[in-house]
Write a structure and sequence with these properties.
Blueprint (H helix, E strand, L loop, with lengths): L12 H19 L6 H7 L4 H8 L2 H8 L10 H5 L13 H13 L2 H13 L8 H5 L1 H9 L18 H19 L6 H12 L10
Helix pairs in contact: 1-2, 1-7, 6-11, 7-10, 10-11
Length: 210
């Protein structure tokens, strides 16, 4: 039996969520959270606003989908340790090697990185739904990275307070490089990170721990 040309193809919830996230990443990355309406996102995926709300709950729920359920769950130390790359041995991974992995990963998701940087700038406002998330981000990153048995130079002692300023410097450097990467003309994200890596993890101290 031949199907009518007007027959709609029903998409799975997973496909719909992916379409919504892709459209939201593009629109919010271009116009910011405050400048993007739910109607624009719904129109971009060919849905009604009630249909969109069925998947995201609220506009704030959309941010959770984009950041905590998407951006934050990929490019993790766990992903690195499964990669088989040099320095990824789960029993003693190398922190600088992981950061190079993360930079390469982020270089492949330019629109999502742009979204993240736009939201971080907007979230300086206490009224922004992600204000608390970005305020707590340095502590969250530190606590997350502290779960792993990184192999670091013995001169630094254990992974404790001695590494805390190093991790902070990495976050700040990476954020700054990503902003420059998103501008025109762009820098090469990976090559630029290597410049900062040599400053944050200097020789000869880190020579066998990169």
């Amino acid at each position: 039996m031949v199907k009518s040309k007007n027959t709609r193809v029903r998409k799975s919830p997973e496909e719909r969520r992916r379409e919504i996230m892709d459209a939201a990443v593009r629109l919010v990355g271009e116009k910011g959270y405050s400048g993007t309406s739910l109607k624009e996102i719904a129109d971009a995926v060919g849905m009604s606003q009630p249909g969109l709300l069925h998947y995201i709950g609220t506009k704030e729920g959309l941010l959770s989908m984009l950041i905590t359920d998407n951006y934050d769950v990929y490019g993790t130390p766990e992903d690195f340790m499964k990669s088989g790359l040099p320095g990824s041995e789960p029993e003693a991974p190398l922190f600088p090697a992981y950061l190079r992995y993360l930079v390469r990963y982020n270089a492949q998701r330019r629109e999502l990185v742009r979204l993240y940087m736009v939201l971080e700038s907007e979230a300086y406002s206490p009224e922004h739904p992600l204000h608390e998330y970005f305020e707590n981000r340095p502590a969250l990153v530190w606590n997350h990275y502290s779960q792993y048995p990184w192999r670091i130079p013995p001169e630094l002692g254990e992974w404790d307070e001695s590494m805390k300023p190093v991790v902070r410097q990495c976050i700040e450097a990476m954020d700054g490089i990503q902003v420059r990467w998103l501008r025109n003309p762009p820098v090469d994200l990976y090559d630029e990170w290597l410049v900062f890596e040599r400053m944050i993890f200097p020789s000869p101290l880190w020579d066998n721990y990169r």
